[in-house]
Amino acid sequence: MIDMATNFNSVRPILNENFNKVYIETYGCQMNVSDSEVVLSILQPQGYSLSRNYKDASLILINTCSIRENAEQRVWARLRELNSLKRKNRALKIGVLGCMAERLEAELLDSGLVDMVAGPDSYRTLPQLIDGANSGELAANTILSQEESYADITPVRLDKNGVSAFVSIMRGCNNFCTYCVVPYVRGRERSRDPKTILEEVKLLFESGYREVTLLGQNVNSYCAGENITFAKLLEQVALIAPQLRVRFSTSHPKDIGRELIDTIAAFPNICKHIHLPVQSGSNSVLKRMNRNYSREEYLQKIDYIKKRVPNCSISTDIIAGFSGESEEEHQETLSIMREVGYYTAFMFQYSQREGTVAAKRYPNDVPPKVKGRRLQEIIELQNSLSLLSNQNDVGQEFEILVEGRSKRNKEELFGRSSQNKVVIIPAKGHKVGDFVKVRVTSCSSATLKGEAVE
């Protein structure tokens, strides 16, 4: 969970004692973080100021994730916790936003724990929903749109450092992986007008930001007319300023192509990191997942990345114990991890989601103990791969963008390299927002430690 109520930056949210106070908690992906910024930008003109403390707020909004059951259970637990505040303060209103609101509208409203729900495409109607809730109604809008992109809204930035920002370039998903709820809770793909994206990025750079991450469920599918592919958009963003780092997330393996990889290679300020979710190393599992690529095709693209961008780091997502997964199929996942050499991975047990194709077509037949054991094997392997990847960086020099002070030692700063690796350095006069050339001196599986190179 990302506590958005404590995050402030140079493009500040309004903090006004005379305004109504809204507290926003965000769960899940980077897209939800971006959506929370859109929500605040809609509420500020209505007289709402961001609250630092949920206990001081008159409105609490929980922006939710439905990708796994555990994510939803955390929200239910949080709502029950917040219900004690509602009993003490009848004026307090609580709303659930995002994917869980879209998926479980009726259950949320019937629970007695919330006053309103709003799906990902209905944030413009939040002022009306709030008015309804204040009048004693149970207010809801979960209508999905084929046009809404919030392209005309300038998000109020909620990041901590004022250095790195998310920019949503598209919404929705057309892939319909059999295990995934995203197309059902976020709707179909639609791309933002590139002009609005470029204007937003220029404003961020002028406001002092030095890194942007372009967001989409599948950025490779971005399309604005016949000529503006994602690779073209990425090039245009990179050309805004050589001092601006550009990242993106997430790529779908079936769609990532040579044009995009060549663009990454051509621009020094496009970060040398690609998140490319493999999910499984087994062709039979990939087919059941409806991923629309094979192990061989995936590895061919990895090979091209390594040839064209030899200093590029690659991260991934992996699901352990998908429907029908055999021990042999699990071993194929471990082998593709070794072959690619991911520097990090997001690793999960399969969580069957109601309404997905997999829930209707395939039994959830891998026993929990087997899922747990396979996930542990994946985690242990990835820890060793991460350590090896970081050990290979010891003695190497990288440029990092300083993002903040180390939590363990206030005399140290942390930043990320172009490869998205966290590097800890002594402060020694450097500050947040600085680009610092560093030499890596030691490492763990999670972080690098280094010193500035004069």
Helix-strand layout with pairing:
Layout: E1 2-3, E2 20-26, H1 30-43, E3 48-50, E4 59-64, H2 69-88, E5 93-98, H3 99-103, H4 105-110, E6 116-118, H5 126-134, E7 139-141, E8 164-168, E9 170-171, H6 182-186, E10 190-191, H7 194-206, E11 211-215, E12 223-224, E13 228-229, H8 230-238, E14 245-249, H9 258-266, E15 273-275, H10 283-289, H11 295-308, E16 313-320, H12 327-340, E17 344-349, H13 357-361, H14 368-391, E18 397-405, E19 412-417, E20 422-426, E21 435-443, E22 448-452
Parallel strand pairs: 2-3, 2-4, 4-5, 5-6, 6-7, 8-11, 11-14, 15-16, 16-17, 20-22
Antiparallel strand pairs: 1-2, 9-10, 12-13, 18-19, 18-21, 19-20, 21-22
Describe this structure as you would to a colleague.
With 454 residues, the protein is an alpha/beta fold. The protein folds into three domains: 2-141, 3-Layer(aba) Sandwich (Rossmann fold), CATH 3.40.50; 164-391, tm_1862 like domain (pyruvate-formate lyase- activating enzyme); 397-452, Nucleic acid-binding proteins (OB fold (Dihydrolipoamide Acetyltransferase, E2P), Beta Barrel), CATH 2.40.50. It has helices at residues 30-43, 69-88, 99-103, 105-110, 126-134, 182-186, 194-206, 230-238, 258-266, 283-289, 295-308, 327-340, 357-361, 368-391, and strands at residues 2-3, 20-26, 48-50, 59-64, 93-98, 116-118, 139-141, 164-168, 170-171, 190-191, 211-215, 223-224, 228-229, 245-249, 273-275, 313-320, 344-349, 397-405, 412-417, 422-426, 435-443, 448-452. The strands form six sheets. Strands 1, 2, 3, 4, 5, 6 and 7 form a seven-stranded mixed β-sheet that branches. Strand 4, helix 2 and strand 5 (93-98) form a beta-alpha-beta unit. Helix 8 packs parallel to helix 9 (258-266), helix 9 (258-266) packs parallel to helix 11 and helix 12 runs parallel beside helix 14. It is globular, with a radius of gyration of 22 Å. The two termini are 38 Å apart. Residues 1-10 have low confidence and may be disordered.
